[in-house]
Amino acid sequence: MSFISFLTSYIQSEYEGALSILLLGVSLNKYKIKG
User: Fold this and answer.
1) Residue 21: its pLDDT value, please?
2) Predicted confidence (pLDDT) per residue in 12-26, tens digit
3) SS3 call for 11
4) CA 7 to CA 22: how far, in whole Å?
5) 20 contact partners, CB below 8 Å, separation of at least 6
6) What domain of life is recorded for the organism (predicted)?
7) How far apart are CA 11 and CA 7, in angstroms?
8) Torsion of CA 18, 23, 28, 34, to 10 degrees
9) CA-CA distance, 34 to 24, in Å (whole number)?
């Protein structure tokens, strides 16, 4: 049970990290287009 909870929390953190990187890339692309 603890391993499963650890695995889900790890996957969630990895997903949130990838999502934040994706949002950062999108915002940078918008900034480049405006500039």
Assistant:
1) 96
2) 999 999 999 999 999
3) helix
4) 22
5) none
6) Bacteria
7) 6
8) 160
9) 15
pTM beyond cutoff 0.85: no
How far apart (Å, rounded) are the C-alpha atoms in residues 35 and 27? 12
Four-point Cα dihedral 16, 20, 25, 30, nearest 10: 130
- Per-residue DSSP letter, 1: -
Pairwise CA distance, residues 27 & 34, whole Å: 11
Place of tokens 């790890």: 10
- 27: tokens are 């915002």
